[in-house]
Amino acid sequence: MASPKAPSSPSPSPKRPAGATLLRLKFQWPLSFSVAEPATEFDCLAPEGQKLAGISYSTATLVAQFTDGSYAYREGGGYSWSQALPLSQYIDPVKYPLQCVSGGSLHFAGVTKKGRVVSSISRGGEKAAKLLDVPPGELPAVAVVAGAHHVAALNEAGRLMVWSVEDNYSANGAVAGFTAVQVGAMPLPAGPTGQVVVAGAPRVWRHPAVMQGRVRVTAMSAGVTHTLIGLSDGNVWVAGIKASERFSRNCGISTIYSKDVQQVKLPVKARTVTHVAAGDSDVCVVATNAGVVCWKDDRTTYNFNESTGWSATYAPAPRHLPELDGVEIKQLAVSNAYHMVAALAVDGRIFTWCVALSEKSWPADWLRPGLAVTVPGATAIGWAERDLYVTVPEGMGPEVVKLAAARPDKSA
């Protein structure tokens, strides 16, 4: 007679992501915050029985993720933002279950659970999600950033793939510096690489050290048209930079875009790049092991050739921010309002400053980072309507926030 089976233990249920609390720090001119309060914008969009798990941010969109893997968003800019809406308006979560998502202006891109990249852009209110073709031999994607007209994705090998998602001048300018690749029967663009851009066709970055696996992309961010790329060797590259629109208008020509993926010489000797953030107007902020740098104003030069027309040579002037030396940065967030930046440190301190001054009367002191607030346990930050949103672990609230003294208003 067979021995009776021992009672089996119940199968462990899948681990549920920890919940988070979203706080709103109300902006106080200049570069300070006046009060911390619970942020409830996304509460009504949480599926039944689910909670907020975290947020992600670009200068165009604040995205909330819930514990069941669904998403909601608020679109906008520095001064005006939409109400919170479910991301399913752009991307069907049943058809395209996502592991991460990024928002551009009226445009979202995500990485599916299988490592495919999906893009959905709003055209006249109509939205249609589309899987983007992957270059042959490339590994699944693990991260994605979305600009207004383009998508950049990072794969498991630390290599970069990009796509334009519209057929217009700005979309072409965003990706023309990257190399087009053959996919199935899709023909390669005629003429020199980058001269003709096909919407939806994949492109790659042929940086020798990255292609050989000696260097990885460690950080990336997308602005409206530019893509900021940080490498494990401490170098920074940028593509899709616009030349001065004022120059273009004065000369009666279209906006000029940089034609190459161009290295930016940093004023610090970095061994690796940890975080990057791209904003509007070609704003760039970079955190390295050797310090934080930023730039917006540049020394671009313009050239005219009778056969090729106008071209521009991008010559940025990054500046080192010694106030942040020794501060371990967890996240950078650029606001469209006043070219403001918030830098979240690992210890919960949040520093704010302006990358460039919008008015001549503004003091140079605002170009230097200052401590604005300390939020112990802060996990992520993002701007909306000039206010700063911060996530902390569930169970924590506004009582943990320690506001720093307000910066004096020295503007004339």
UniProtKB/TrEMBL annotation:
Name used for this protein in its record: Regulator of chromosome condensation
Organism, as annotated: Chlamydomonas reinhardtii (Chlamydomonas smithii)
InterPro entries for this protein: Ran_GTPase-activating, RCC1/BLIP-II
GO BP annotations listed: regulation of mitotic cell cycle; regulation of mitotic spindle assembly
GO cellular component: cytoplasm
Superkingdom of source: Eukaryota
